[in-house]
Amino acid sequence: MDVGRIWGRNSPKAVREIISRQSSMEMLSDDSMSKNSNVTGGCKRLNSSEKTLLESVNISIPDGYCLSAGLGIYKLHEDLATWNKARKICIKEGAHLAIVNSQQESEMLANMFKHSNLMKYEHRESVVVFLGFHDLYQEGEFVTIFDDSLDKVGYSTWSKGYGGQPDNGRVSGQGKGSQNCGALVTDGGLDDVGCSWDLGFICEIPIRQSASLA
How far is 72 from 211, CA to CA, in rounded Å? Predict the structure, then answer.
């Protein structure tokens, strides 16, 4: 669901205020966020009255999703899944695998990731989560799940970890050249990982700030 197609200049004032007042979440310190059970890494879970208000304009927010002002509505899934299974779960929830459009969004998602239970894992699950991009069509040509290039959507900063990404590294049992699915690293950069890996993942319901706050 593209919320930006629903929220225009004539949207109810109260709906726009929900977005506006979430902007304060972006300025919370890590300590403040850790003390607020409704805020995870700058993404705030909506209360029942806010959900009811959004539903009045045909916007349904699935359980577990949180709102980050001017960016979107997100859910970090901590139950591990392969990339394709994660993609299908997001679709079932009326969302899609998250696509990063800016440095601000990458930092918010990485912060949300770092505050999650995924950090308890000792290996790759604690380093990356699946996002909505891949190079399954042509090696080295990364596109989103909507077939847009990373440059077109606005964010193509790769992680410098493990010698620099993307590295198309070795996936156990598949040989060199099998890392074809996209992920976010805790440093906010992008990574190419194995599509068959079991990882956490982020689903997104996008909000177009220009439409919702105009």
Answer: 12
Confidence (pTM): 0.76
How confident is the model at residue 72, as a pLDDT?
84
* Average pLDDT of the segment spanning 40-57: 78
**φ and ψ at 179, to 5 degrees?**
-95, 95
What percentage of the chain has pLDDT greater than the value 90?
Answer: 41
Dihedral angle sign, alpha carbons of residues 201, 198, 184, 124 = positive
Amino acid, single-letter form, for residue 77: H
- Distance, in Å, from the CA atom of 64 to the CA atom of 77, rounded to the nearest integer, reads 9
Which residues are CB-neighbours of 95 under 8 A, at least 6 positions away?
1, 62, 65, 73, 75, 203, 204, 205
- CA terminus-to-terminus distance, the chain: 20
Return the axis-axis angle of helices 48-55 and 13-21, rounded to nearest 10°. 140
**DSSP assignment string, 57-125:** TT----TT-EEETTTEEEEEEEEEE-HHHHHHHHHHTT-EE----SHHHHHHHHHHHHTSGGGG-SSGG
Judge if the upstream peptide bond of residue 62 is cis by omega within 30 degrees of 0: no
Residue-wise pLDDT for 95-104, tens only, equals 999 999 999 9
Greater pLDDT, 214 or 161 = 161
Distance CA 186, CA 109 (A): 9
